[in-house]
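Hey, quick one: can you model this chain's 3D structure?
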Amino acid sequence: MKTLVIGAGGREHALAWKLRQSPSVTEVHCATGNPGIGTVATCHDTSDYVALAKSLGIDLTVVGPEVPLVAGVVDQFRAKGLAIVGPIAANASLEGSKIHSKRFMAKLGIPTAAFQTVENATQIKRNFRYPVVLKTDGLAAGKGVIIAQNEAEFAAAIASLPFPMVIEEFLEGEEVSFIVLCDGKRAVPLEPSQDHKRIFDNDQGPNTGGMGAYSDSKILPDAMRGHVLNTIIEPIVRTTGFTGFLYAGLMMTAEGPSVLEFNVRLGDPETQPLMMRLTSDWGEALMAAARGSLTPDLLQWSPDPATCVVMASAGYPDTPRTGDRITGIDQVQDAVVFQAGTKQAGSDLVTAGGRVLGVTATGKDLADSMKKAYAAVDRIHFDGMQYRKDIGSKGLRRYNKS
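Sure thing. Here's the predicted structure for all 402 residues.
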């Protein structure tokens, strides 16, 4: 079948890369893509996705980023009878509005942090203790969250984040990304993964779109995966008829898993290690999800963990610098370099965004995958590059404790 990937980042590069390997797929197209995606797919510079799909005779479209989902791209495709993987706009509001998402969780009894929603500063009820979490209501590319440790930081957050917003209790524990593929009736989980949001090592500095991720089956035991499916995922699917990817950002607290947020698409950079571990026909699974015939056997995984290290540009996450020449990708061994914020400038590949590359490797165990990923990072250079040195280290500490 002919496939179309919507998006232009590292997640979309990984999606197209895996679709290119799928026996069921004959062509891979992308709108709009980037130079890395262009090595595995035909890129098209257009935002009229329906017209593109019709003109190319696309059999299946998969949506990467959240913005077109919230804008209703799935509704538009279905109105034309075109197969697409993703939620309708009404269900995409689980990510598009933090206020809607929190209220919906409360209605369904899904565990989440205690919260209040406010339209302006005068509505704030100071019935919380520090630290406290502030989240802007709308889409913010993973950066609309501030954790205030004291009154001064709270005041600064109120001044910097737009209203309306959610103010919620700070939860203690370890974060896990739990992503499922849904066909409207059932949800099939992908392997667990863990994102690293802060810009600096040891979870220091401001939030970003994600500075790296790893996927390892040991992150969540089978019993806990079943618990999350039963208590968090399936109530959403039953109530909404959800289709596409549902991403529960979990905090594993002492009382059990609690939802920090829902996303309605694959995570970035979680997709990169997940696609490295997937061994089954990705195109076949996605088409089954679009047709309402998804079964668990369509998703098969390698037991080998995978680690993705994001290399970001100077100035990220505030004001990323662009135009710096990237070298060394062709010297990488035992890893795949997924491109995100890149563009071609003559014969040079240069930086064109905040998160530039996702250097990803698998290994016989988590430590081996980390070693391979960082060895590949060492071969790549661009001026001002920044990356975390501790992607996956939480997993190693967890295993050492056990």
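One thing worth noting: The chain is about 30% helix and 30% strand.
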